[in-house]
């Protein structure tokens, strides 16, 4: 399933575009993604990002100014710097193809402060559904999210002074890396078949559970375009990240979280991808002490289908399965279902299905509700719509509830239910 994380294309160049200022102590720079060499007076900066429920956004910039001496915080204000951002697709759109979330605009600076090191931090306006600031774009014809090429321009508009009253001279700014502490906590790995990201629990003494997160269709690779980034699985939504939060880690007693990335999309060929995912699991269990009785699988949309598929192919592997808005019905009229009833009825893995009734991408009736009727002993949570923190998301995005441990039945929440399941040896 195509899972756009964006609202619409933004190509509105700001009237206040940055310009070089011929005033001592004021500087402007425009650089690409890689940091360039810094000369005297040049300042590097990092793009700080956060994965919101609706996708990753750049939320602040950290300027490496501590080496210039102790800056007087009284000389800082939201008007000291202007921040301009452009975001373009690394893959040229096909003729007639749309890409959502490219932009060329000024970012609003909402606060300025000095961190513990004495570096300047510029907080940027951030909110669900806000145009600009996102790190991913969605290619409509390909049905994929791609990591946008980001170029941030900082223009200094007012002088800075040190605590001793002397002026601070910045001659230019050099863009550095994109930092997201939650995403960066997942290491990069690969098998012969698939790339994957792995979170290791901070306290990993003894055998630990393993949670397998299977992404939606929008987060797969695009090998015909040479694009297979191992990044969008963690940046498009909080599906995998939710299980790495301190709250989830306490509930599971410290769990490994693995997020394989499809080379295309799981529904394309579940029979081929199932053993590839199994080999990822085997690779993780070979490298780390994993409790074989506590391996769990969860996924959304395409990944919801694949979660169910994995329990049909490997009935003895998983202690529990949580498919979210998963596909089981046929994709075309007259075609056979993706997962036949006979296979659903044979599932023995404890299963908790989740969806929203207003899901128009994967209609609940022939998919989640039907699966619940056929899978023996399965549980199901049906939402009317997808609303979190007062913001209403598309009805397909019910994985947001799983990422926040919201589904509950008879007082038991889904993470606690998963953690309590053990596979019979």
Can you walk me through this structure?
With 425 residues, this protein is an alpha+beta fold. The protein has 2 domains: 28-179, Immunoglobulin-like, CATH 2.60.40.2180; 183-420, Alpha/Beta hydrolase fold, catalytic domain (Rossmann fold). Helices cover 18% and strands 32% of the residues. The protein is built from 10 helices and 26 strands. The two termini are 35 Å apart.
Total of domains: 2
Helical stretch tally: 10
Beta-strand proportion? 25-35%
Low-confidence sequence ranges = 1-37
Spatial strand order of the main sheet:
15-16-18-17-19-20
Secondary-structure topology with pairs:
Blueprint (H helix, E strand, L loop, with lengths): L27 E3 L11 E11 L2 E9 L17 E8 L10 E2 L2 E5 L1 E6 L5 E5 L11 E4 L4 E4 L1 E8 L3 E2 L5 E2 L3 E8 L1 H4 L1 E5 L4 E5 L8 E7 L17 H4 L3 H4 L3 H7 L3 E6 L8 H18 L2 E11 L1 H12 L6 E5 L16 H5 L6 E5 L8 H10 L4 E5 L2 E3 L2 E3 L5 H5 L4 E2 L2 E2 H7 L5
Parallel strand pairs: 2-14, 17-18, 17-19, 19-20, 21-22
Antiparallel strand pairs: 1-11, 2-3, 3-8, 4-6, 4-11, 5-9, 7-8, 9-10, 12-13, 15-16, 16-18, 23-24, 25-26
């Amino acid at each position: 399933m195509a899972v756009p994380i964006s609202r619409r294309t933004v190509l509105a160049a700001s009237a206040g575009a940055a310009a070089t200022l011929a005033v001592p102590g004021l500087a402007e720079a425009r650089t690409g993604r890689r940091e360039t060499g810094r000369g005297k007076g040049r300042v590097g900066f990092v793009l700080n990002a956060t994965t919101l429920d609706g996708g990753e956004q750049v939320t602040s910039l950290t300027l490496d100014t501590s080496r210039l001496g102790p800056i007087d915080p009284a000389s800082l204000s939201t008007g000291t710097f202007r921040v301009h951002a452009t975001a373009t697709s690394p893959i040229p759109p096909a003729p007639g193809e749309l890409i959502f979330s490219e932009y060329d605009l000024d970012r609003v600076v909402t606060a300025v402060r000095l961190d513990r090191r004495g570096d300047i931090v510029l907080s940027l306006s951030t909110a669900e559904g806000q145009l600009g600031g996102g790190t991913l774009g969605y290619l409509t014809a390909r049905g994929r999210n791609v990591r946008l090429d980001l170029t941030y321009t900082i223009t200094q508009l007012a002088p800075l002074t040190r605590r001793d009253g002397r002026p601070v001279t910045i001659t230019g700014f050099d863009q550095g890396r994109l930092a997201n502490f939650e995403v960066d906590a997942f290491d990069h790995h690969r098998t012969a078949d698939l790339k994957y990201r792995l979170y290791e629990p901070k306290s990993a003494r003894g055998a630990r559970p393993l949670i397998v997160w299977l992404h939606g269709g929008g987060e797969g690779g695009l090998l015909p375009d040479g694009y297979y980034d191992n990044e969008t699985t963690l940046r498009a939504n909080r599906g995998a990240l939710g299980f790495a939060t301190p709250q989830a880690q306490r509930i599971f007693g410290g769990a490994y979280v693995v997020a394989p990335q499809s080379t295309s999309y799981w529904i394309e060929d579940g029979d081929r991808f199932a053993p590839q995912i199994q080999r990822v699991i085997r690779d993780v269990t070979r490298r780390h002490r994993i409790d074989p009785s506590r391996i769990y699988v969860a996924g959304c949309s395409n990944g919801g289908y694949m979660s169910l598929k994995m329990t049909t192919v490997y009935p003895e592997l998983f202690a529990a399965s949580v498919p979210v808005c998963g596909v089981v019905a046929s994709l075309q009229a007259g075609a056979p279902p993706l997962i036949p009833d006979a296979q659903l009825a044979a599932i023995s893995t404890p299963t908790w299905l989740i969806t929203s009734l207003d899901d128009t991408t994967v209609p609940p009736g022939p998919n989640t509700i039907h699966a619940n009727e056929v899978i023996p002993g399965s549980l199901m949570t049906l939402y009317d719509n997808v609303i979190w923190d007062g913001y209403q998301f598309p009805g397909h995005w019910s994985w947001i509830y799983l990422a926040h441990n919201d589904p509950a039945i008879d007082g038991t929440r889904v993470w606690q239910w998963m953690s309590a399941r053990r596979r019979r040896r």
